[in-house]
Structures are given as structure tokens and as C-alpha cells.
Amino acid sequence: MRNKIRYIRLIGLIFVLIVGSSLTFAQNKSKRKSAKKPLVEVVSIVTDEKGSPLKNVSIICGEGAVVLYTDAKGRFQTKVENDATVMVEALGYEDKVYKLTGSNIVPEKIVLKKEPLFLTEESLVNRADGGKTYKGNEVGATSVLENGQFGTFPDLTLTNMLQGKMLGLQVRSTVSGLGNNTPDLFIRGQHGMSENTAIVIIDGVERPAADLIPEEIERIELLKDATAKILYGARAANGVLWVTTRRGKANRRIYNATAEAGVVQMTRTPDFLNSYQYANLYNEARANDGLTPYYNQKQLEGYKNSKGANDLLYPNVDLYDQLLNKNANYRKVSFDMTGGTDRVRYALIAGYVGGSGFEDVTYTPQLHRLTLRGNLDFNVTDFLTISADVAGRMEMRKWGQLDCGQVFTALSTHRPNEYPLTMSPEETGLASSDGIPLFGASLLRPMNAYAETMYGGYTDERYTRSQTNIGLKFDLDMLTKGLKAGAFLSFDNYDYLQLSLSKVYPTYAIKTYRNFAGEEQIMYTQMKKTDVATSQSRKSTTLQQTLGWNAFAAYENTFNQKHDVSARLTYMYSKTTNQGVTQDIINANYALRLNYMYDHRYAVEADMALMGSNRFKSGDKYFFSAAGGLAWILSNEDFLKDNEYVNFLKLKTSAGILGYDRSTEHLLYERAWSQAQETVQPEMVLFPEKGAIFWELDVKRQVKNHIRGSGNNEISLQEAQMRTFSNFAWMFLQTEGDYNFSSGSRGRGNLSSTANPYFLFPQIYNFRYNIYSSEWPVANRAIELYLQKKSENEGWERQINGLSNNEKANLLLEKHTFKELLADVEQRNLQNNIVGLEASRLFARSEINMGVDAFRDSLYAMLKRNTFLNIKFENMLDTLGEMSRTDLYSYLKEWEQLTPLPFYSIGEPELTKVVNKGGEEFFVLKVLVSNNSDYDGIIQMNVLQNGWWYQPMEDPRARKKVEIAAHTSKEFVSVWEEQIRDVEINTMVSGNLPYMIRQSIGNVKQERNKIVKDTIYTLPESSLEMPGEVIVDNEDSTLFVLSTPAVVGLLPKWLDKVEDTSFKYSGISWWRAPLQWTATTNAKYYGKYIRSAYVIKSGDGSQTATWKIPVPEAGQYELYYHVFKDDELRWNDRLQGEYHFRVAYDSEMEDAYINLRKANEGWEQLGTYYFSADTVRVVLTDECKLRSVTADAVKIVKR
Questions:
Q1: What is the pLDDT of residue 20?
Q2: Are 853 and 861 in contact (CB under 8 A)?
Q3: Is 1122 exposed, middle or buried (0-12, 13-18, 19+ CB in 10 A)?
Q4: Element containing residue 1090 per DSSP (H, E)
Q5: Sheet holding 142-146, edge to edge
Q6: Mean pLDDT lowest for which of 210-224, 263-277, 1028-1042, 1179-1193?
């Protein structure tokens, strides 16, 4: 608290100095004016060295109060005070300055000496390292934007105004609400690493660009190559946007005041379907997939004649019309005052920005932002200059219960017939209170967007940011000509507070059903309960402080008017501390820059830096970087010097290697301001029954064995005791390994588990840390299963049960909420799978933002930091959310809802070997995945390289998660040095069966001289079906028919009996095939979303599977069957077997066969036929020498 008070006093003192100085100058001026000093007349002519008059030369008098220009004959005439300063400036010529005294006057003829282009005083610019150089002599790759070049742009954020203004800068806009849409800045494109945006340096310190208004800026420089970026250490590898704020100039006094107000209109909005159109198109889509219509004729008529947004059964809602205005307003006001003398210079800039959002809701988003900056430079002596800068920003925002992103998400994802916005008590028979309407909802979306925006409360956000700089500069010419030194100290403080008032009112999902009398009835299911807060609560706070300082020593000189030499040694340090967030961020950088130029024609630059970061691993905290560059100014050569078409031409090149720490997380958390609770483990009492295993109870022996068994990796006594306790507690765990198999089953082994009689709930399974939550007691288990990658475990249960446990969990989550399944004793065997899937779904967006491995490493590090401590689950989500820039709370709410399951079409991977000139070889992998559902989803793609164990490569690109929006496709293009063998697509929480597909890459294409970069393309939705082919799968219930099994005896039926289950698919074993057609799944079967087939024990040909193929038009067709080879063929090379088909068409019947030993897995041709009938029937019999027959899919392809 004391430090904060001192800091406030320091800021106040500096502001007093700045304002006081400016007032003193103003008073001095007024006194001078009141004294009415005598005026003198100045008459002169300005010429070049040849005597030719110069037109439009600037004549500046009285600190810029008087500015005039020479006429066509180079003449000017004016009256000034007898002690005024007269400046003469012309582009391409040396400046002249005359200070009038009794004997010193402006000559009648002023001769200006010509200077090479970009080597005049006007082109002398401040470098990012603190030195100065002429534009023409720069070696590094930079782009510059001067004050006044921003133009007018109706945006509330500075960096959005830079779009298209600087060569090499890409400004990618974001949507984060009013005034908060700070874009991402990329220099020379993007690369595959995370955190690949440029950093912003303001007056020598890394700071947010959003803190600035255009009126504060003197100059923006874009540092693009290694020689330009090396001075800013390991955080600058992606480029630097270097900003210099305005400072006062001697003898130039400027006052500016501007005010602006405007209206921003939407350019266009999407044209959404109404409910009737949506229902018709949805039915059409289902028909295209061979499914029955979802909406009946009565519903279609109801939507066609809908009464609007509040129609109880047939709502027609246009949320764009309900929740958006057509325009929004904004306001800008600014005032700045700069000036000074040769001794003291000052700048004072103030600005206000305000506006409102497009949302037409109770609490339309409002923004109020105030900025203030004061810069002061004071020449204490001829060799010492002190600078003091203060800047502050205060911002207040307010919005409704839903922020901008949530509002527009609701606008674009809610179906027009999702639910009625409001319902009347009279129509529903439900009671309302306090005059609040009843709100509709759906099972998929329990939240009512209208209720949230109109009645749901509001959020206030306030934050302040202050910046202080104090610097000393020494001109040491008295020691050595050209020697300079300096030091600079900065302190930034950021304070953020968010308060909210949340009101939740009941919502009701509507469902119709028919009673026993056949009458249609309406059932209302309450989806949200009343939760109305009466006062604001603190939702989020952040306190961040940054301390930085740098020092330099520099030398620059010119010898014999041809040899320009300069050197600069710098040290920079910064430390950022965040309240309650991970640990401090510390960066340090030692840099040496050497420059040499000969005769203003040839330039050489060499840079070296020692880049330090506390994110680097222990023992390697510093990274040595080096860069160099060459430049040749051709326009100064004799053969171009007097060319009238080329006034400046320079060639330059540079190269370097830089350190990079922005994709690296800390390996150890050293400190945090948040306090953790002490852990108290509950006492456990065991009453062992007869037959209990007492080995785990011999504690002393167990401890000794652990120490003895550690070998070379010695462990402590405490570690041995923890391992002993873990072994002891294992007796209380629910396990998935205690399986029972149905005795004597024929091909349908049924898997079940017996509950552990010592099982305790909640589970005690990890005693190193305790993640607790009053709402989610399963939080501890969720984190553990997430780190164990439970959702990525395909499971061997498919061979026994037909589905993996994760797939069963997916299907259950579609019909029941997470909480319902946790409380369901019948599903206890699947509990770990359910928890693991929900944990994976919760953290999926964080993995997308940070990278899968980087996010997991961060979570591991957090747990290590909190060993033997309690961790509140909600606090953990706060920290993880800030680290990964993800709102995990919003995704945690999905745990309370049903889980919509998207489904995907997965294309065959394509691999191309590219050989370029010079012998360079690489492989290009392309994979297309299409989301064909109404729900957004996330998939994980694993690229596998080496054979049997299918381990992903160490390259972080080999394992990534990607979000795929509904009805869109993603094409993954990646470049690899070695040949890829397999690609694995994990559809995670989806309706795909199997949910994990591993595809081997067969043929490798060959191409030459091609440039390819890693890219993910977003494409329209695709079914991945080839034109001209018709496929009928066993999942097409209307086109696929199975024969009825023959009557068998009681004993075979009993052996073939399967326990009742709610899942359609069963396990199949080739050594005991089922007696009747049985559905099962396998990744090698054909299937658009569900890769399944029917299997039966081989017989005499009496059992059949029939596919009815609709023929689009008469013609010649090739007929194919999708072949699958089971383990019987894989394990016995001598076995032979044929599938017997009958092809019925045009009143003819032909036999066809497939030799399974010779056939390849996948599509195998049955023959070529001329089909003229509308439908062709393909019949597969159970006649085969193998143990079983599999009925999968057939297709025809027109020739």
C-alpha cells in the first residue's frame, strides 16, 4: 500500500512539472507580448549554391506562430520581434537558423547547401535502440508511418487504423465487443508457432497499442528483419511495432483541438431462413441421406402460417431483427499542446473516446475511454538531459448479461424455430412472477437469448493503466567526440475490475406428445431455475505491474568525411508481475550493434545479443543471437548520381538467428499472490473382511521395498511413503479391469464388471493435490482422466461389445446431462469414460489456442506447483483461461446441458512427394474433414510416421485439435521432411462410429518444383462422394434388407443369447460367429458416419443380405462390393474363401464371386453390367468356406 501511495505521489509530481512548465512558458510569452517588444523587418532571398532561387522554402518564426514560404523568385518578407528565432527549411537542403540579436540579423541572401536525399536533418530519425541515423543509411528492414499519415477511420482502436498503411504489416481484426476489438498484428505473415503476433514497444517499453490515440503518436516504425529486431530480446522474434510518442520541439509551439461524432452503419447482415424454409430444407437434407422426414406436414403448415417470434408451437424468430440496431454511434475529442525552448520542451495530450454497440437490448454496450499523456525534456546542462513522461488511461464499459461475442454467437447458431421468445401464462398454464414473461427454450439450448439480453442483468468493467518513464542522457563529447550514454527507468501499473449483476429467469422447453386417447398434448420441461441477484458481485479482478530499465553507451563519428563509424552497447530488463496468475515474466537482453559506412555508399552492420528469459530451462536462461546486414546505395554512385529519373536507390540484405520464448511456458511456478489453503486429508478407517489382502497393510515392508526398488533413481522417505499409501488406497478404487464374460457365448462375448465392495465415492485416487468444487465434486477425477488422455483411448472393448466405452459414453451424453449420468448407478461402468470425455471437451478450445502439448504442460506445471495443496476448481479454470485466452467458464456451463453430437465425413489422406531444383525433397500431406451436422465440433488429427505402434511424432504439428463449424469443411495441408505412414482422426465428442479412424497412406504422388506451406483451409461442406457413383450401405434401412433367421433349437439360442442393451451394435469374434445377422462396428468397414456391417456364421446359402441400388439412368455400370478381411484370413495364409453374390436386374439373375484371399480390402469390383431398370438388387448369401460372412456396402459407377 505504501509503495502504491509513493507511486501516485510520483505521478502527481511529474504531472505538476509538465503542466507547470507549460503554464510558465505561456506566462513568459504573455509577459513578452505585454512588453510590446519592438519589431524588425526581415527581407531576404533564398538560393541554392549555384545562385538559383528556391521556391516554397519554409520560413518559421516565433515558435511556429508565423510560417510563410518563399515565392517563385525565392523572396520572402516579414516582421518579427527583435529577439526572435528564424528557421529556414527546404527538403534536400541543410537547415539554417538565425537567432536575432543586436548585431546578428538575417542576411539579405541566404544560400542553402544541398544534401543527398534521406541524409538531411529532416531524415535524421531515432532508431529503436535509442541512437540516431539517417534514413538513407539504414541497413535493417523497416517501414515508417509519420504523424498525420493515419487518415480518418471511424474506429475506436488505434491499431485497426493501421490496416494497409505499412508495408509488411497484416492487421487481422477480432470481434471482442465495443472498443475491445484490438486486432492481431502480424509482420511478414504468420508461422505455425503459437503467440506469433508482433509485440508493440511504446517509448522503449513493451505496452498495449490500445492505450494510444493517434494524436499521441509522433512516429511508428515497423521492425521486420533480424538486425532491426535483435535489440528487443526473446519476445521480438515475430517483429516489433516501435512507437514514439510526440515530444515538444524547441521554438515550435502548437495547439490542436478536435471533436468528432458519427454514426456507423452495418454494411450487410446475413439473410437467414425463416422457420418454414428451414424445416423444408432440413427434411430435404435428411431425404438426401436416405432418412425419413423430421418435420411432418402439420408442422410445415404451422411454420408456414406462424404468428411470429412468440408462436408457442411454431415460432418464427429472426434474432438479428430482435436484438440488433441498424447503426451505432461514436464520439472522439482530443486536445494537445506542444512547444518549448532550447532548454525545456513539453507535450501535453488529452483525449476522450466513447460510443455504443449495435445490440438493441436493455443494456446496450457503452464505452467511455479517457487518455492523458505528458512528456517533458529538460536540458539541465550542455551534457545532461532529463526526460520525464507520464501517461494514463481510464476506461469504463458496460454491457448486458451476454457480451458481444455471445450475442452474435446466439444470432448465428439459433435455428429460427428453436423456441418462442416469450410465452403467455394464459396459453401455457404456467405461473409468472413480478411481471416477467415466461421464456421458451429447447433441450439443446436451455438459455433464452431474449431473456438474457433483456432481463438478464448487466456487467460493469473498469480499468486504469498508468505509465511512467524517467530517463537521463549524457553527451560526453568533452571526453571523446561522439560518445554518449544514458539510462531509462519505467514503471507501468494495470488495475482491472469487473462487476456483474446476474438475473436468471425460468425457461421452458416445449415438447408435444399424444395421450392414450390419441390427443396431442404439450409438455413443458423447465430448463433454467430462478436465480436473481439483488446487488453486483465481483466477477474478475486483475492487478499487473511492470518494471523496466535500460542503459546504453554509444559512440559515433565520421573520419575524413567518408568513414562513418558507430557502435552501441545496450542492456534492457523487464519484469511483469500478475496478481494470482502463474509467475513473474522476466526478460533481459544484452546487445551490441556495430555500423560502418563508406562514402555514403556501402554500409555494413553486425549485431550480437545475449537474450535472457525465465521461461528458458534452468542452466540455459540465455540464448546467444547474432545478425548482420549489408547495404549499397546505388544512387550515390557516379553512374546514377545525376540521373533525373532515379533520386534514391538502395539494395540491402540481412540475416540472423534470434531467441524466442513466447511459445514456452514456465517449467516451475516460483510465486503467486493468491494464497492456497492447507490440505487436510480425511481419516480413513478400514474393516477388512476375511480373505482381504494384507500385503498392502504391511506399511514398513512396503516403504523399504520402494526405497530398495528405486535403484539408481534414489527416492526420499516421503516419496516412498506416498507410494505405499497410493498402493493401499488402490483397494478402494472402482476399476475397469474386473471384467466378467458371458460363459460359452457364441461370438457375442458380453462384457460387464462387478462393483468393488470397498469402492468409495467421491474417488480418492491422487493424494498429491486436491482439486475441489462444491458444484462439481468430480473435478479432481476430471483433471486426472484428462491428463491420462482417457478420451483418446479407443479401448479394446469393441471386440467384445461392438462399441468402445468412449463411444457408449458419447451416445449417452446426447440423451442425458453430465450430472444425470454421474448419479446413474446403472452407468457406473462408464463413469470414467463419461468424465474423461467431458474434461476433454472442456479444455479443447484451450488446446486449440495454445497447442495440445503446450496446454497439457502448463497444467502439469500448475499441479506440480500446488503439490499437497488444495486447488479450487473455479480458480484453476480462471488461471488456465487467462493462460490460454479461453473463457472456460462458458464451456463449463455445457456440462449442465445435453451434448449435441456432430458427425463428420473423413476423406482419404493424400501424400505427395515434391522434388525441387537442387535436390530438395519433402512430402505434402492433405486431409479433408467435413462437418455435415448442425453443430460445431472439434476433432484431433494425429500424424503417424513409424509402423506398428502408431506413435505420433515429436513435432507439435503432428498432434493438433481444430474446431470445424457446422456445415463446413477443413482441408489440412502440411509439409514433412520424411514420409508419413498413417493419419489418425479422433472425432472426440461426435456421432461417428468408430469415433477414431486410422487411415494408412497407400500410393504417393510425385510432383516437381512446387512451393507449399502449412495451411488449414476452410471450405464449404462436402459429402466426399464422387460424381456418378451410387453407394448403398447396410445403414440405409430402406435399401438394405436381411433375411429372417431359421428356427433353431433352445440350446443354440441360449448359447447365442445377448444381455439386453440400449446399444444397437454387438461384439463379433471370428472363431464363434453369430447364428443370425448381427450389427457391429469397425474402422475398416465402409460408412459415411457409422462404419458398420452385419456378420453371420457361414451356412448353406439360405441366409441373405440384399442391397437395393437405385439406378439414376440406363447405361453401362461397374458394380463394387466393400471387402473386409477378418483375423481368420490374416492369421492363416492357407485359407481360401469366396463370397457368393446374385445380381438381379432387367428380369435377369447372374452369379458373381469375390475371392477374399486375392481381393484387397476396400472396394472390389464384382463385374460390369448394363442396367436399364430403376432398381438393381445385389444379394449376398451366407455360403462360404470361412467361418463367417460380412455384409457391408455396395456401389455402382457409371462408365
A1: 55
A2: no
A3: buried
A4: none
A5: 142-146, 217-223, 240-245, 199-202, 205-206
A6: 210-224
